[in-house]
Amino acid sequence: MAYAGDWCLIESDPGVFTELIKRFNVRGIQVEEVWSLDAQTLEELKHVFQAWQPVYGLIFLFKWQGNNDSSGAHPDADLSIDDSVVNNACATQAILSILLNCPSIDLGPDLQEFKEFTREFNPYDKGLAMTNSEILRSVHNSFSRSDPFIMDSSESSSSEKEDIFHFISYVPIHGALYELDGLSNGPVNLGPCTDDDWLEKVRPVIQERMARYASAEIRFNLLALIKNREDVYKMRLETDISFEEREELLHKIELENIKFKRYERENSLRKHNFIPFIYNIIRILAERGELDARIEHAKKEMTKRKKERAEKKKNAEASGSKN
Questions:
Q1: Is residue 297 flagged as an active site residue?
Q2: 166 counts as catalytic
Q3: What is the pTM for the complete model shown?
Q4: Which of 116, 94, 118 is nearest to 187 (CA)?
Q5: Which of the residues 166, 174, 272, 297 is marked catalytic?
Q6: What is the pLDDT of residues 259-313, one digit of tens each?
Q7: Domain of 290, in residue numbers
Q8: What is the CATH number of the domain that holds 41?
């Protein structure tokens, strides 16, 4: 694929994915991390503060293990796809697999145009169109983490093979649950479902996949694309509710705003290279002859803090034993 090597690695983080979707000009969607697959957690994901909330799809991240993993689980898997696509573009591909298959989502002009353009393409050509899309690639690459230790592109390649993590999507489409994997020649139909029960249907599928790697791998991540919670809360505010519920909803809206501001700050810090700033501070202190004194001060402060923590722990243990 022509531009496959130009896709950077991005972090599997709800703040990153939420802002990435926003930069695609898609509104009303956010991404939340799913910490557990138990029934209560999945139910809470669908119902937020007495209101029903659409869960559009799930994105599952796992360590790709070649023929022994997901791609080998289905006969239509195609392992000839370039590794750089698996390694880099699959995060955005997993997001698009959900966005483009949910008619209730307002895609915005860019993704709507891409969807119309690729409507009659086969799965391989759709993937090719995605990896060659300037808009999709530029938005994806805007989340590249700064690596201060890579001086030029030739230094980024290594003879040592790094772990490759792969993203796949699960989404209900026209009454059936589908697994959408960029390594496969096409979607995999996992059976019938409804909008209300598809999360229960997908739970054993993901659990079985995790169990397959349990002896050698514990690094998994599960993210859910959901309707923007602030929008859900505001819709609830327009209904006939009690004063107490109204106050609670306003509080939850405030918490969502705080969370999104945190996302914005974290994403900004991810992209910033602090090494030159730190280097110059150290250099200036050394030139002034102040570096050794600062190091000694820092050592003393660290020793003091360790001692304080040890004393707090000792006092807490003593208080617990008395009780």
A1: no
A2: yes
A3: 0.74
A4: 94
A5: 166
A6: 999 998 888 887 777 778 788 888 898 888 988 888 999 999 999 999 988 888 8
A7: 275-322
A8: 3.40.532.10
